[in-house]
Amino acid sequence: MRPIESRSVTEQVTTELRRSILCGDLAPGREFSLREIAGMLNVSFIPVRDALRNLESEGLVITRPGRSALVAPLDLQDLHAIYRLRRTIEPEIASRACVLLSDGELDRLERQAAGFGDERLGMDEIYDAHHEFHLALLAPAASAWDVRLLSTLWRAAERYIRIGFGALDPDPEEHHRREEAHESLIEVFRRRDPEAAAQAVRDHLERNEQLALRALGDGEPADAPKRARATKKTKTR
Fold first, then answer.
1. Which of 40-44, 66-70, 72-76, 103-107 has the highest mean pLDDT?
2. With 0-12 CB in 10 A as exposed, 13-18 as middle and 19+ as buried, what is 49?
3. CA-based nearest residue to 79, from 224, 231, 227
4. Which of the residues 75, 128, 140, 199 could staple to 100 if both were Cys, CB 3.0 to 4.6 A apart?
C-alpha cells in the first residue's frame, strides 16, 4: 500500500483503502487492525476508523469490536444480488437516456470504446475509463440519487468484474470482444429505440455476471433468464 501524506483526510484514506481492496492488494477475507492500517498509511487512527465506516457501507469491509476489521469475502449470493439490482435499475435509465444523448456525445463514447480493445491494457488499467463510459451512457437520464446508488453497486461489483475479466486479459481476442461489446451498445443507442437500449444493457450485464461467475467457479445465477440458459446449452452441443 502507498503511504498517505500528512495532509491527507478521511476521503483520501478511503480512496487508498478502496483501491487496495479492489485491485486485490488487500485480499478478500484478510483481517487487520486499525492500528496496522494507520501505520501502513502513515496516518492517525481516526481517519482510518472513519474510512472503514465508509467502506463498510459499500460492502467492502466488515468492522468488528475491538478496533479490528476484515476485507469482505467474495460471496456468490452478494454477486447475484448486485446484478439483480443493476438489471432492475440500469436498463430503465438506458431506455430514457438513449433519446437524450447527443450525436456528439455518442461519437465521443464510441472513440472511448475503441480504446478498450488495446491489447496492452488490462482490466485494472481501463476500469476507471470503463466506469466513466457507462456513467456517461446513462447520465442524461440519471438523477443524483441514481448516480449515488449506481456508484455503490458498481464498486461492489468491481472486485468480481476485475477477477472475471482479469482471467481473460492474456487472450488478445478478449480485448477485441470488449471493444466490440461496448461499440455495439453505442450502435443500439444511436437507434433511439428505448426498448432496444434497455435490452442491450440487460444483455451486457448478464454476460458480465456470467464472466464473474465462471471466474469464481460457479454456474448460472439463480435468476438467469431461461432464454440465456437455452442459448448456452445449444452452443455447448
1. 103-107
2. middle
3. 224
4. 140
The backbone torsions φ and ψ at residue 26, rounded to the nearest 5 degrees and listed phi first, read: -100, 105
Model confidence pLDDT, tens digit, residues 156-202: 888 887 766 666 666 667 778 888 989 999 999 999 999 999 999 99
Look-up of cell digits 502507498: 2
Alpha-helical runs (H) found in 98-193: 103-115, 123-138, 144-168, 172-190
In sequence order, what are the beta bridge partners of 32? 69
Q: Which residue has the cell 492517525?
A: 44
CA distance 176 to 184: 12
Look up residue 51 and give its three cell numbers: 474510512
DSSP H/E element including 99? none
Q: What angle do CA 215, 137, 211 make, to 5 degrees?
A: 10
167, three cell numbers? 482471467
Give the integer Cα–Cα distance in Å for 61 and 64.
Answer: 10
pLDDT (tens digit per residue) in 80-138: 999 999 999 999 999 999 999 999 999 999 999 988 877 777 666 777 788 899 999 99
pLDDT of residue 164: 65
Alpha helices in 169-225 (DSSP H): 172-190, 194-215
Lookup: cell for 6: 500528512
3-state secondary structure of 122: coil
Q: What's the predicted TM-score (pTM) here?
A: 0.73
Which grid cell is 50?
Answer: 472513519
Q: Do the Cβ atoms of 167 and 124 come closer than 8 Å? A: no
106 forms beta bridges with none
Q: How far apart are CA 41 and CA 5, in angstroms?
A: 8
